[in-house]
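Pasting two entries for a bug report.
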Amino acid sequence: MAKTALRNARVFDGRGLTEPRTVVIDGPVLGIDPAGATEIDAAGATLLPGFIDAHVHLTEPEQLADLAAWGVTTGLDMACWPASRVAELRSVGPADFRSAGPPAIGPGGMHTRIPGMPASSIVTTAEAAVRFVEARVAEGVDYVKGVAEAPGDGGPPAEALQALVDAARERGLDTVLHAATPGAYHLAVATGARFVTHVPVIGRIAAEDVAAMKTAGQTAVPTLTMMEGALPYFAGAAGDYVANVAALHAAGVEILAGTDASAESGAPVVLPHGSSLHHEFELLAEAGLTSVEILRAATIAPARAFGLTDRGEIRPGLRADLVLVEGDPVTDLSATRAIRTVWCAGTEIPR
């Protein structure tokens, strides 16, 4: 694979932009020696680590190309099955793919109506939750996904959800719990799950749950783009989803950028892969996150939180997942849309 040297690149280092410097792409990783490299003048542009969307739903290989075209070099999938489809998506690129496999759900609620949802996903006892985790481990998932619902809303019982989180942790896996109402959020936080995804569209997360998340070091993936898109389905909704993220942010809870992008039938809203992450940035700004915090939430923060130690930063030895954008996204966040070039593991992506 050819070597490329990006000259005069201002680099986002997780805290801001560096002075212009040279970044070397040496095969699939970032190198240090520009000798013999093809040179690109990046003057006036900003080089960012490849974006990570911390909540997507992928079904077709073409969606990985859609992600990459918008600078999303890693998609963290939150419900994909069967195992053969997961294996295919792992192999095709250009964006990298990680998955929970199918989610653990209860006997009621909207997830039971998703076409093709495996019957084995329905978990109603602690013993069934352990078996569910063992099946996911056998499939080689990267983390476990469960759906929390408020009592009476059809989700797994509290003891089953707790067993799911505990069994995953015992096997070295983190758990991501869906929670879209205040009651579901309380249940999800109480399990100690590493990640809670979504925020309530109607109603506020209880202050004690926000405080508990901070104390426990839990991470929120609020998917504001999906919650905004779902507003027509919730009579009387008036912006609680943004206020909920503002409360989490004010308390110091870690927040990651994720969209819930999906083209699946049964999803409440169809969201495009890739471009939707840039709208997520705008909504996170509405909730009070700074540009630096938002860029971290899509790069170094999800890489560290999900244990992706080979990406999320621009330094020698890491994957050459890069996004070159015109302008300065720290002072003007919309610059993330002005993409000049994307590289996935050192391969330039046609645009």
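Entry 2 (this is the one that rendered wrong in the viewer):
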Amino acid sequence: MAPDGGTLCALLGRYEGAGEPLSCERVAEGLLNRGYRLATTRGRYFLKHHLDGDCAAIARQHGATARLGAMGLPVAPPVADADGRTVAVIGGRCYALHPWVDGRHRDGGQLTAAQSRRLGALLGLVHTCLERVMPPSAPGGEPRVESADPSDTFELIEELLALARARRPRDAFDELAEHRLVERRALLERHAHRRPKAGAEPATGWVHGDFHPLNLLYRGAEPAAILDWDRLGVQPRAEEAVRAAAIFFVGPGGTLALCKVRPYARAYRRATGATAEELAAAVHRVWWERLNDFWMLRWRYQAHDRRADPQFPAAAALSVWWTREYEAVRDAFMG
């Protein structure tokens, strides 16, 4: 539910020259926040409602984007209120006011090879600049997250299969879900021995945490703003590069446009100094992660949330295709 008039007036009253509210329309909704296009008598803003309410973490994100913006990266740091604060708590809810950025989202299918190269360079610049503006991470980064245990995945597959088969009335999505679950079970049985070994992670560092087309606005052919820094944290950096490519460059049929992945990855390596071997290790770990990941089906069948349903066909097909074309995918990131 959008903030009511009283909340908006109280919020805008904290900022000098923000004006009075005219309209507030939802434009985005996620697990960690909701977004609104806020029009006032003095201009347009993006109003972000942070659902988790962790003001310290939000302030850390704000500080990072402000410093990145000062370094010339395309970001949209929040507006500071009259007291210099960027987080407003009203009625127990956490809000942040950002300047409105005109632009549109573009997926990899809309990017040329040259633009794909610039995308890889941009992500590399994000990683290297974060290293400069954020406090050094502890040796080894944050606690390691072990790669998925296939025995746990087999149990989850059986649970999801039972839920999909029990749905009444069944629809085409349920049929596809059942097919992909059975298919994935067979793939895991064949490839369980390829589980990544502990300690094989690429170098860790500060990362955006959720770099994908819906979090990048373009104005014309160039990026205008990197959005949504809620998952800012310390992770294996090369893995973010691989995850981002697997979202930007996946086609509707679940194949990766390797002709675009190659210049993207080459530019990322050049920008960060990451080695081909680091990218190869990241490819393997992200491939395994995808092979064991069923978050979209968990949303649908366990949380009764269908927002991720449209993403499932391509994502599920990608795991199968990636397994079949493993060497080609690895070579594209290393080449």
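Dev reply: Rendering is fixed now. As a check, the viewer should reflect this: Residues 113-133 form the longest helix (21 residues).
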